[in-house]
Structure prediction request, 670 residues.
Amino acid sequence: MKKTTLIEAITQTLFEEMERDDRVFLIGQDIGLYGGVFKATKGLLDRFGPERVIDSPISEVYIAGGSVGAAMVGLRPIPEIQFADFITPSMDQIIQQAAKLRYRTGGQWTCPMTIRVCCGGDVGGGLYHSQINEQWFFSQPGLQVVMPATPYDAKGLLKSAIRGEDPVIYFEHKRLYRWVKEELPEDDFTVPIGKAAVRKEGDDITIVSYGFMYHRSIEAAQALEKEGVSAEVIDMRTISPWDRETIYESVKKTSKVVLVQESSKTGGVMGEVSASITEEMFDYLDAPVSRVCGLDVPAIPFAPPMEHFFLPNAEKIARVVKKVMEY
Amino acid sequence: MPATKIAAKPSLKQIGLSKETLLGLYTNLLKTRMLDERFRKLFRQGRFAGTYFSAVGQEATTVGPTYGLRDEDIIAPSHREIGAAVTKGIPLVHIVAQIYARINSPDKGKTHPCHYGWREKGFISPSSTLAGQTVTGTGCAMGFQIQKKDNVVIAFFGEGATARGGWHEAVNYAGIHKLPIIYVCQNNLWAESVPAHRQAGIKDFSDRAKAYGFPGITIDGNDVVLVHKTAAKAIERARNGEGPTLIECKTYRWYGHSEIDPADYRREEEIIEWKKGDPIARAENLLLDLGIHTSKKREAMVEQINQEIDEAVAACEKEKYAEPEEAYNDVYSENFPVRRDDY
Ligand SMILES: Cc1ncc(C[n+]2csc(CCOP(=O)(O)OP(=O)(O)O)c2C)c(N)n1
Ligand SMILES: [Mg+2]
Prediction:
């Protein structure tokens, strides 16, 4: 069977969901005529026309906020933010409108929309084409935040997001677009929001990550296996609301945890995961919960040596795992 | 009396610019074009990383307003202002080093290509967030006004960026306070793949100024004399405390949005039509007509510029990237160390 890349899985899903539900429409920069700067929306304009595949002006406030409004009156918008770096203008609409709409109206109004955000480093993008910024959305209740690491999850999570009743920030890591491939089932399937996946079982230590860092983590785990360390690897898939149960179960088994995240350490998702484990699972722990993260600097620098220095990789993860093992 | 068409040769007096200014404009146009074409070639050869945003075809739009500014005047650029960088006087080697992200780049390799900057010449290293520097540039103008300095700011942006909310907040503020700023819109008809008519409901982007109570003017952006003279008037207004001007320069980018964009969303005829109005050729023909330039002089200029570029490129290719630990520098002022984790 043909293998599908992560970006193809996204394109396929958009086709399928737009076919399935005519409330679904797309809006974003260069998504129509051009098919998206990475070609994620290729062919959709031809198939669904300019009323459902809208090339927007350079107006991130509106791309997000206009979508909130359309969702309020019964549509299922899928706005696209071309690069996560440029989501900042949208923050007002995402944080003050999308995240709080249901709450502030006592559930009368809802915002079923899926904001697709192209993100991530290790692509030579420099300060302004490498950011993720997932922690900002993670720290805002009312938003759901997902980041698939595999084509299967890309498809399944996107379907769940589109069919769900809440605003979802759907992060697409551009490093994974064409790098990861797998065979996908023919039949319709979804991946539930809020459920992590145990990708590799192990007894000695738990490595938790998401997105591109899941791949670095599994690389590290495979290398460690040869050195006699049996690591369990969990891909969070959903960042918010995150799956405490799956992670806690693993901690009960291994008693040691390393958390891996591409974004800067301070204020990041893994700080919260770490605090929760320490708070609720202290009795099970045999070593300090440790993190491997991007550097605490403003963004990923451009020059290749600095970019590599910024990013966690398999070697860094393995070193930290060994340190924790020796604790 | 019936009007007779006389193909009169222009005179310096009619043009209203000195020979020196005309040659200065022309030299910067030529240098910008040659450098830009060289960068495109080097990119295709894989000699530097990232991407490249060519401004070939748009040189007059950036060279014209920048020529003649003081060092203290500020340029608030976007991503297609190589002409302003050259004309404002950022040393060639710094421009090339920025493209190569080497340690000798003013930003030390932190940002990606086409984000030139050099404080000494009042040129802000930009963020990639479109219209970002339109806002901060307006803030610089506010600062000059508060300090009672007669410096000015030129903010450059594409027509696409004028759809951003931040752009409107800044321009509105400049209108209220008559700030010393000139907004130069490089309308190249496209924002990546999106044509101008899908970006705004107006035809002339200078109309935007009406809503903010200051003059907006649309001009042929490929006529360097017109661009320079229009900008010079606006600069004088700004220096005299009479407030901002929005100048929309209609122009065209000859190549893709970046070097990896095939730009197949544009019609071939459109490209051919615009190439006929090449701003460099137009300036050159004018100088020839005026008798202040010859093809021999041109050859000598080309040779000299080529040599300068060769030297700058060679110097940068020899330079190293900054050490990885450079990533930790320039986060805060020196008394505030950055958290470092040893993995
Ligand atoms: C806020 C923001 N949104 C999106 C982008 C991605 N982007 C970079 S250039 C560009 C098109 C810009 O068009 P225009 O302003 O007309 O300038 P031009 O490229 O034509 O010179 C886009 C959408 C960005 N850099 N910043
Ligand atoms: Mg444009």
